[in-house]
Amino acid sequence: MAARNVERFWEWGRKIVCVGRNYADHAKELGNAVPAEPVLFLKPPSAYVREGAPILLPGYCSELHHEVELGVVIGKAGTAIPQAAAMHHVAGYALCLDMTARDVQERCKSRGLPWTLAKAFNTSCPVSDFVPKEKIPDPGNIRLWLKVNEQLRQDGSTSQMIFSIPYLISYISDVISLEEGDLILTGTPKGVSSVQEHDELQAGIEDVVTMTFRVASR
Ligand SMILES: O=C(O)/C=C/C(=O)CC(=O)C(=O)O
Ligand SMILES: [Mg+2]
Predict the structure, then answer these.
(1) What range(s) does the Fumarylacetoacetase-like C-terminal domain occupy (predicted)?
(2) DSSP of 43-66
(3) For a pocket test of ligand 1, which of 19, 21, 168, 186 has the largest count of ligand atoms closer than 8 A to its C-beta?
(4) How confident is the model at residue 195 (pLDDT cuts 50, 70, 90)?
(5) pLDDT above 90 (res 2)
(6) Which of 65, 72, 100 gets mutated to test ligand 1 (max ligand atoms within 8 A of its CB)?
(7) Is 75 helix (H, G, I), strand (E, B) or coil?
(8) Ligand 2 centre from 3 Cα, in Å?
(9) Which of 11, 55, 84, 139 stands the most exposed, by the fewest C-beta atoms within 10 Å?
(10) Statement: residue 3 has pLDDT above 90
């Protein structure tokens, strides 16, 4: 069998590990306390969507939010990876959206239920092209932005993260072994807001990569 190319990680069927509330300003805008430990949840590989295909509104959701995030693509498997070695396990990065059915999430939270319906639906993880590690020498200090219909909604820096990328890789891999082709979504800065059918979402990591998606009904 031909070797698979991690530059097309979204085709590998690997897991997507998401970190929530990793920016104090976003935790605050949703009325949450700043966490003492990373908040984790998962998306399945069926959540991936690439430019050219639409983000589909789940039929059961009336408030779909965008969350722009830096994605970390794992290049080398590991369990209980020490922080000092964590960056050796990174192949590169991707610009990602953690699309969230916010009204559904609020209902799940109030009932003490998991966030699966709010976070893991088909097309809930739009991703850009793969960005090789060398193109982002300091992933802990890079600008992320997102516009809806050309209006800037999110504009933050990964320097605002509460838990750093090495810490997250170490923390996650202690609980969930990381494999080549896995993706970690590192959380979103403030400015999340709702999108409607036909809206155009444009996002970027500084001047490194941009992507554009449209929202459509199912
Ligand atoms: O706690 C909430 O109400 C919402 C949390 C999130 O959706 C967390 C994230 O996905 C994030 O911070 O990026
Ligand atoms: Mg998120």
Answers:
(1) 15-215
(2) E-GGGEEETTSPEEEPTT-S-EE-
(3) 21
(4) very high
(5) no
(6) 100
(7) coil
(8) 31
(9) 84
(10) no
